[in-house]
Write a structure and sequence with these properties.
Length: 376
Amino acid sequence: MKDGRDSGYKKGLWFLGAWCLVLGAWQWALPISLELGNPDFELPPSNLPGNSTAPIELLNGNNTIPGWTYEGTVQYVPLAAGGGHAIRLGQDGKINQTFIANGDSMSYLLTFALSLGGQNCSVNASLVVSAPDSSSVFSWKQRYEKGTWESYGLYLGSWGDGESINLVFQSQATETDSNSICWPLVDSLLLKTIGPLTQTRGNLLLNGGFESGPDFLDDSKGTLLDPEPSVARSALQLWSVMGTVKYIDSKNYFVPQGNAAIEIVSGVSAGIQTAKTLTEGSEYSLKFMLGDANDSCMSNFVVGVQAGSVAQNFSLQSNGTGSSRGFSMVFKAESAPTLISFQSYIPSQSKDELKLRLQLNAKLSARNCSVLHAAE
Ligand SMILES: *[C@@H]1O[C@H](CO)[C@@H](O)[C@H](O)[C@H]1NC(C)=O
Ligand SMILES: *[C@@H]1O[C@H](CO)[C@@H](O)[C@H](O)[C@H]1NC(C)=O
Ligand SMILES: *[C@@H]1O[C@H](CO)[C@@H](O)[C@H](O)[C@H]1NC(C)=O
Ligand SMILES: *[C@@H]1O[C@H](CO)[C@@H](O)[C@H](O)[C@H]1NC(C)=O
Ligand SMILES: *[C@@H]1O[C@H](CO)[C@@H](O)[C@H](O)[C@H]1NC(C)=O
Ligand SMILES: *[C@@H]1O[C@H](CO)[C@@H](O)[C@H](O)[C@H]1NC(C)=O
Ligand SMILES: *[C@@H]1O[C@H](CO)[C@@H](O)[C@H](O)[C@H]1NC(C)=O
Ligand SMILES: *[C@@H]1O[C@H](CO)[C@@H](O)[C@H](O)[C@H]1NC(C)=O
Ligand SMILES: *[C@@H]1O[C@H](CO)[C@@H](O)[C@H](O)[C@H]1NC(C)=O
């Protein structure tokens, strides 16, 4: 895709990490971007000139599209007069591409742009993205954003070096009368690998700064992460996702620490959770910052934070001017792994509040930082 995608993500609240004492630099396994062939569908089907502005070309048995194999009804869709194309997966529409896994113990994370639904549709078909170890369904649901395109991130799997991985995008409709069905549009694929995470000095939480997650599209309005109960299968490495949260980058958003943060959207019940084995009976402090996304939204935002058996609500009065505030919570670890979660609550009904967001980085340390560092 080159252009033609809607802009206008501005409203929000952010929320980031504070810490006890940061001795080391932020460290994380360096991600590697993998090239998929024709990932943004800019190389046209064999029988179409590259600059074609024809409304929609039905791909049929007589043409091919570089990098991809297709089945069923698949359309090559110009998005704007200036160029930029996407693929629409119609009835039984399916495209696939194979890539070769490189490196062991790597997580493969995919980001892509998706447009679901449309005006006057009685049915909005879903998109199914699958790889050998995973299959994820993306369905139309009421969003907090305007705009038809959204980018999504997902965990595809983890494979051995040299394995051949078939990545498949497929439409899925519950009804067969295709007249009033709106079919999904797919564009701008980014594939990334991440190795095992290493602990950062001064933070007992792995990926507490949310540096390890899926890629961002160039003009990123954030990468949406759908619910994923398993930390092992989450695109936000080692954090499970409840509801839909947004992963945002420092290039497009104000993220005071590191390159990325999580936005938790109010008005929906959403959040993230991780687990950490700690020393039973010891006290720990969980530090984080809450802020707003500089979107002029004024409201009181409540975030529920849980660490083991301690649960507390933190509230931030937002000016919508991009301010932030650090918070902390002390808890005593029990024998079982300590669950740590951040969750937004559905506030009192107001249109404005539906658009509030939170961004966060979280930091966990033993309460006595000097003791923690001495032990390292
Ligand atoms: C497409 O490109 C060809 C060759 O570059 C040119 O002759 C043709 O006029 C172009 N068509 C459009 C619609 O821009
Ligand atoms: C492929 O091309 C042939 C010859 O032009 C045509 O008869 C046939 O209908 C085409 N196939 C499809 C599926 O459009
Ligand atoms: C798509 O999948 C089929 C098997 O289902 C495979 O034969 C084909 O090579 C795949 N296409 C690409 C481009 O990898
Ligand atoms: C389909 O998506 C549109 C938004 O693009 C929405 O207005 C409509 O209600 C959806 N229809 C159904 C049946 O979900
Ligand atoms: C949707 O329906 C309305 C009312 O029937 C009509 O005016 C409009 O043109 C339709 N939009 C599309 C994109 O078909
Ligand atoms: C936090 O607020 C929510 C919503 O008002 C409420 O349901 C929950 O019990 C509160 N939790 C605590 C620990 O106060
Ligand atoms: C909100 O705005 C007022 C006036 O502009 C300022 O004094 C106050 O510090 C701001 N509060 C926050 C939390 O940013
Ligand atoms: C908030 O947005 C305004 C206007 O876009 C900008 O001038 C300001 O620097 C931003 N503040 C922060 C903290 O990002
Ligand atoms: C905290 O650290 C100080 C300085 O290293 C030490 O004297 C003290 O005993 C520690 N407290 C606890 C509770 O471990």
